[in-house]
Amino acid sequence: MSNEFIFANEQPEPESGKPALPKNKWKILIVDDEKEVHAVTRLALMDVVFEGAGLEFISAHSIAEARSKIDEHSDLALVLLDVVMETDDAGLQVANYIRKEKGNQQARIILRTGQPGQAPERAVVLNYDINDYKAKTELTSQKLFTSVMSALRSYRDIMQVETQRRQLEQRLQRIQRLLQDDYPQAAQAVQQLLEKEAS
Predict the structure, then answer these.
(1) What is the pLDDT averaged over residues 33-62?
(2) Cα separation of 33 and 11, whole Å?
(3) What pTM did the predictor assign?
């Protein structure tokens, strides 16, 4: 694979100071059969820190390896997914595995392809639950950074909503247990609250 299919050329930007090492990391799964793509993706994103946490890179080079890593890491924030690997639709099979077989709606999926004709963008976006679609020939280091940051923000927001939903569910379950196990006191407490609100 020629270098122009890894990243397009761009002007370098001046470096700011290195951020402090984070305590936790956002997990990013890179699925691509080209070793160079893994290496250059890690290089482009190695210093990225989002909300005090850096990135943990996990690599897979085939459908089977991708499935194994997905099974092993249920907390993936982002999947950078090549379309064409051992088959023309390998990446699409992986996307379906994440969404349909594992039921993971939280992880963000960015499809990257060196052969857009094999998986036309409109058809892929309509038929598969992915979050972004990028041609490798157009993907500069800066554009990759922007896409990754956007995906991480979306993942963060989704997980915050999920956490709030679980907390609310736990509160409702506690109230339900209280009403079931000790209804008279619960009823009296509810009545007092209602009277307080009315006064």
Answers:
(1) 95
(2) 28
(3) 0.74
